[in-house]
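Dear support,

I submitted the protein below through the web form. The confirmation email said the job was done, but the results page showed an empty box. After a refresh the structure appeared. I'm attaching both so you can tell me whether what I see now is the final result or a partial one.
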Amino acid sequence: MSLVFRRVAGSFHVAIESFEDLAAAVEMPEAHWIAMAAPIDGLACDPAFLRHLDRERRGRVRASDLKAAVAWTRARLADARGCVPGADRLVLTHISAQAAPLRDAATAILAGLGAPSEAIDLATLRASKAALLRTSQNGDGVVPLCALDEDPGLASLVPSIWTVVPPVTDACGEPGVNAASIEAFRAARAEALAYLSGRATALRWGPDSYALAERLLALAHRLRELFLLCAVAATQPGMSLGTLGAEEVLALRGQPDRLRTALERLPLAIPNAERRLRRADLLPGLFFDELAQLWDALLGAHAEPEGLSEAAVERLIAEAEALRQDAQKAAALPALALGEAALRAIEPAAEDALLARCAADEQIGLALAQVDELEKLALFQRWLFSFANNFVSMPDVYVACRRALFEQGTLVLGGRNFSFSVRVSDRPTHAAVAAESLMYLLYVRVQGATAAQGYEVAVPVTNGTAEGLFVGKRGLFFDREGVEHDAMVVQILPNPISLREAMFQPFTRIGRMITARFERWAASADAEFEGKLTSSLDQTEATAKAAAAAAEASPSAPVAPAAAAPPAPEAPASQAQSSLATFTGLTMALAFIGSTGALVFSKVAEMGPLGTLQAVIALLCAVMAPFAILAALKLRRRNVAGLLEAGGWAMNERLLLRRELAPLFTRRPPRPPGSSLRWADEIDPDMVTPVEDEQPGASNPLGCLVLALVALFAVVGFLSSPAGSALRGVLEEAGLPLPDPISDAQPVEP
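What the results page shows now:
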């Protein structure tokens, strides 16, 4: 099948209009795909579909995942008409023979519901799955204890099983048993019963056989040493082997550790040539009490009249070793903790009944697996076509009546609708990459019902101007379902929005610069005036306080006749010079403005109306052209794909935003149909109620401007008059000449 590539906004997108197109498109080289990988966060798909599509659970979908999904769906659908544009109703006759178990499962579900067995939808599948996932039957093969309340016999068996085998957690979170744990318990119980059957012969020394065996084994090496000493006594008659010499004892006084070691080396009994151990021969040493108790409990019963032979001792030690091994084997049998009576009371039929319950639950698990497969097939039929047209191809980006899967909703802000937005998980990283898109971006915080449910989106401004857009501005965000949320701009990434805004940008900057300079000058002058006024008031107050203090200090002094107030001290020379310099600077500025205005007016009069118009147009073009050219280049290269790449997408192609497509994402919505405009202002100045305490002659901004211009030209005219010439002569004598507004005006060099 031959594929068709359509040109969309400067890029070629493969046309996917049928399932056959989809199957052929995913087989072409990935370099021809619009995108090759994307994060699943922010995609407007069924979350279950995205989980099935993300096979490795890495939070991303890659080209191989989509290929595998299409191949899996193609093998299970004999008729794929439901995939275009996507339906969640699965027709049973469309299921292929390879997926016959899925068709049988769907038929069984519909039969259980009493519904026609023609088609099954996604909602029915999920309802059936929820019905199967009950507390006691959820398909995991585990029977929890809480599911056996109706059968006390089986319920009492479960804790016994837990004594031997740890509990198994059911899918509902409750502890229980499964077939493996039941079989393990059955084997452990059988082994314990077999051990108990042979235990009667093992405990030949009575119920304390294990303890006696451990006591005997603890003295085994000393008993063997004793018989070796008996062999030495038989070959060396008269040798003293059972005592310590007096000199040796005296030498060890004050050394308790060495003395104890010497005592431990003494034999258990007096060695004899007959090589027999007799009760009367036991030496009262460190091990006397322990050996005496062992003799009375065990050794004496196996001794002959002439004593216990070495062979008998070795036989008892071997039996003790066997008992130790038997004890270790018993410790390895946890079922013995239940006791012999409880083990023999358990019926094999109860174990079989529990196994049957587990098998029944596993059968439900098989049915659930089929339901899961059916749900997956229904999800792929519903979403694969839409996903491919937002991954392999992306025509929906430029269609006003449809939204791409990665779009989040519409932002209403500042009287405009911003219809394109993408999810942002890491704003600093996104902003660093999104700068390459050359788009004016608003990062907006969308508030959810709780702080954890809020999220951020990136919204491009593609039309109009940036007027009224600033950080902190609030608006409303309508998500894909039309749910309303509060929204606030948290960051702006500036770039050209339109050619018109770029052309007027230099004049806007000049206006802002002049305004800022004037505001700084006004603030500085206000601060200086306030400082001087405060200083003068403080000086006056200090003088008054000093005079009052002097009057209180001499109350009895004769009152002197009132004298004339002393003349005020002359202002410092620097203060006078400062005031004169300020006045001079002001007059010079006014004179310069007047002279410049006179020169401009004279040149305009010489050029005539047409020449003036041409000069104005040339000046405007010279100022606006660089900004307009730079903005036009950037506007032509605006790339919507850059926003996706900043969010983690792997893109092959650019999604350019041409000038004619700009209103698609940002526009002022039209007024309602049938509405009209009344151009007359509803507020009539005659209807405004005057304020009673308002002073007459309130200022009018336009009138103030006219008065300022009249004053300016009056000052310029005065400086050009004979009186102004006389003033200039006086100032020249004082060393402060004023410029002549006419003669000093110099033509401006081109």
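Response: this is the final, complete result; the empty box was a page-load delay. The first strand starts at residue 5 and ends at 8.
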